[in-house]
Amino acid sequence: MITTGQRIKRLRERKGWTQLELAAALNINNSVLSRIESGRRPVEDELLVRLADLFGTSTDYLLGRADRISESRPAYLSDRSPLEDAFLERLRRAAFYDDDRELTDEEKRIMMESLIDAAASIKKIISRTARS
User: Are 22 and 31 in contact, with CB atoms under 8 Å apart?
Assistant: First the structure.
C-alpha cells in the first residue's frame, strides 16, 4: 500500500518540482517535507488540505482512501510553479473568504473587478518607475 508521503512525493515529481520548491510553496522547512515523504513524520490536517489544494486532488487520495488523483484543474494549468500555485491559493482565500464565510457570487464579482483594476494600476506604476 502506498503511504501518504509516497503519494505526496509522486505528485511533486509528476509536477517536476523539487522538495525545496514544494517546501517553500507550503512555507515549511525542507527537512519537514523530507520526513513526511519518507514516512517518518505524519502530515498535519491543515498541511494535508493545503497539499490537496496545491496538487488539485482530494485529501482522500493523499490519505489512500481514493485511488484516482482526480485533478480538479485542466492540464494546461499544470505548468505553474508551486510558488505560483501557493500564491493563487492565498489570493483565492484572501479574496473570496471573510474569515471562514465564503463571499456571495455578487461579492466575488466585485472583488474580482477590484483586483483586476488594482493589478492594472500597479502595472502602470511599475512601467513608469522602470523607465525612470
Answer: no
